[in-house]
TrEMBL record:
Gene Ontology terms: biological process: methylation
Keyword Methyltransferase in record: yes
Protein name, as recorded: Methylase
Recorded GO CC terms: eRF1 methyltransferase complex
SUPFAM superfamilies in the record: S-adenosyl-L-methionine-dependent methyltransferases
Gene3D superfamilies referenced in this protein's UniProt entry, alphabetically: Vaccinia Virus protein VP39
Sequence ranges assigned to domain Methyltransferase small in this UniProt record: 68-212
Domain of life: Bacteria
GO molecular function: N-methyltransferase activity; nucleic acid binding; protein methyltransferase activity; S-adenosylmethionine-dependent methyltransferase activity
Keyword annotations: Methyltransferase, S-adenosyl-L-methionine, Transferase
Keyword Methyltransferase listed: yes
Family to which this protein belongs: Belongs to the eukaryotic/archaeal PrmC-related family.
Organism: Rhodococcoides trifolii
InterPro entries recorded: DNA_methylase_N6_adenine_CS, Euk-Arch_PrmC-MTase, PrmC-related, SAM-dependent_MTases_sf, Small_mtfrase_dom
Amino acid sequence: MAKSFHGRGCRFGAGFLTVGRGYTLDVNLHKVRSPVVSSEPSSAAAVAELDPSIIGPDVYAPQDDSWLLCQAVADAGVAVDARVLDMCTGSGAVGLEAARLGARSVTAYDISPAAVECAARQARSENLDVDVRLGSFDDAAELSAFDVVLCNPPYVPAEAVPVEIGLERAWNAGPDGRIVLDRLCESAADLVQKGGVLMLVQSEFADPDKSLQMLSDNGFRVREVVRSTIAFGPVMDAQARWLERTGRLEIGRRTEELVVIRADR
Ligand SMILES: C[S@@+](CC[C@H](N)C(=O)[O-])C[C@H]1O[C@@H](n2cnc3c(N)ncnc32)[C@H](O)[C@@H]1O
């Protein structure tokens, strides 16, 4: 039986994930992606291939948000010859894409040992030079600031944050969905060098306006570069009743908008 990966937006079966222009993810078994809505055509010739056999059950399998950020990074052309930091790297999907797009160097951090091992193995399997490290924002801030910082953080609002490091920490981001987003926006000026760029992806349910405001207050020029509507996957489905009860979600609605924010320092 095919192995299945479960994440915040979708699920898919085993096989190579081939992600090309438009980032339609066709995994032999299930078509799992809706088309990305973007105001500009993709300039990317990038084709991301991740080996799902390397993505264990404790690691966030890349999906809509991952590919939306990859696509936006490719379209923006910011990774070429840049020193790139991929925060919250998970399987390494975004950092590896930056390496494929021609980054001069890629450093990636995650708090999950399983994710760090997975991303490092993915990089080795593609012969890409990605420096994957166990750690978080304080660790990354000790390095000299980067040209480009990319982040697909946990952003799903949830009643209680899990204490243990594990798969749930990949999406669960506390009642307002902002535990990691706030940390990212606070530390952005330490991570991104002057003239550099931060690109992040998040849900409408985690207050993108707050991200824009915090980054602007920290000296960045900010704009939303992509907005895409996707159907709820298993994680959002599981949160739906609580989101409805607490007034965060219209009754019966089962879609969300994902937003990619670009912030230039
Ligand atoms: C939504 S997943 C994104 C994975 C990958 N970047 C992608 O786009 O598919 C979020 C990741 O952030 C990691 N994470 C959660 N809190 C973190 C923190 N404070 N610092 C670093 N990584 C964190 C989780 O372990 C998880 O791997």
